[in-house]
Amino acid sequence: MVGSVAITGASSGIGKALAYEFASRGVQLALMARRMDVLVDIAADLKSRFPAVKVETIALDVADVDAILPALQDAKKRLGSLDCVVANAGITGVNKTGAGDFQQDIRVIQVNLIGGMATVDAAARIFREEGKREQGKREQGKGIIVGISSVSAFKGIPGSAAYSASKAGFSNYLDATRIELKKHGINVIAVHPGFVKTELVRNMEKYPFVISAEKAAHDIVSGIVKGTSNIIVPAMPWAVLGRVMPLLPDKLVEKAF
Ligand SMILES: NC(=O)c1ccc[n+]([C@@H]2O[C@H](COP(=O)([O-])OP(=O)(O)OC[C@H]3O[C@@H](n4cnc5c(N)ncnc54)[C@H](OP(=O)(O)O)[C@@H]3O)[C@@H](O)[C@H]2O)c1
């Protein structure tokens, strides 16, 4: 079981719901995001509901990749241990390709892909170091790294090309690092949510099979506890659709979006 977790993007949506789900299971928390005032309020509420759970708040912008390792080291120091890191921070970006807003696409890649990769890399470094200390010369880490990708990794969504690319890239990266880090005792888990009602996108309720952030968090944490390497939420229908999506003809995708 996970005893302590650091979550990026914990100030709203899925990250915040994950904090409550982990806390309800007695897991110590390090909450990270840019909006410290929001994190502090969430931490106060968590402490009042779950007095036995330690909750730390740490300011982190994952676009500042050099800040990620020190922030996770700080989380570990303050919690006394770190078993799991959830790379959840992300932004959306609707952009008409060629319409003169490529800066928005760069930002999406910077936060979702580079920021996500940098979080995984920093977590792996901490877990591998820990293993070195415990085992003497033989490096054998331990820990769980969770990356929040998206079902848009399975098929590019028109109007969200950079977002889809960021998630496809992140899923691919998680696949490779899972195999790479297994020998160090580190489990890398990829999460592919469908549509979840959060602040990410306005009018999310108009999208198909939409679920609450609480339901998503419950299913994600249950999957993490089981050690599932690819968590799809909600499992139905996305586990089936995920296989079909790459095969869909352009015309159908155009109609759907
Ligand atoms: N909602 C969905 O339908 C859905 C579906 C598939 C995947 N996802 C993925 O789930 C993750 C969470 O999204 P959400 O739906 O919960 O959205 P959200 O409610 O908008 O939450 C996004 C979180 O990321 C943080 N964040 C944004 N930019 C950041 C940065 N540069 N550095 C650090 N933190 C940053 C935000 O906090 P601050 O603003 O305080 O920094 C916030 O806590 C994202 O990776 C998203 O792509 C969501």
Distance between the termini: 40 Å
Q: What share of residues are in beta strands?
A: 15-25%
Q: Write down the overall geometry.
A: globular
Q: What would the CATH topology be?
A: Rossmann fold
Secondary structure class reads alpha/beta
Strand order of the largest sheet: 3-2-1-4-5-6-9
| CATH architecture level-2 label | 3-Layer(aba) Sandwich
> What count of structural domains?
1
- What characterizes the major β-sheet? 7 strands, parallel
Low-confidence stretches: none
Query: What is the β-strand count?
Result: 9
Bound molecules: NADP nicotinamide-adenine-dinucleotide phosphate
Helix content: 40-55%
Write the layout of secondary structure elements.
Blueprint: E1 4-8, H1 13-24, E2 28-33, H2 36-49, E3 55-59, H3 68-79, E4 84-87, H4 102-135, E5 143-148, H5 161-182, E6 186-193, E7 196-197, E8 211-212, H6 213-226, E9 230-233, H7 235-244, H8 250-256
Parallel strand pairs: 1-2, 1-4, 2-3, 4-5, 5-6, 6-9, 7-8
Provide structural commentary.
- The chain has helices spanning 13-24, 36-49, 68-79, 102-135, 161-182, 213-226, 235-244, 250-256; strands at residues 4-8, 28-33, 55-59, 84-87, 143-148, 186-193, 196-197, 211-212, 230-233.
- The strands form two sheets. It has a seven-stranded parallel β-sheet with strand order 3-2-1-4-5-6-9, with helices on both faces. Strands 7-8 form a two-stranded parallel ribbon.
- It is 49% helix and 16% strand.
- It binds NADP nicotinamide-adenine-dinucleotide phosphate (NAP).
- The site of NADP nicotinamide-adenine-dinucleotide phosphate has 29 residues, from helix 1.
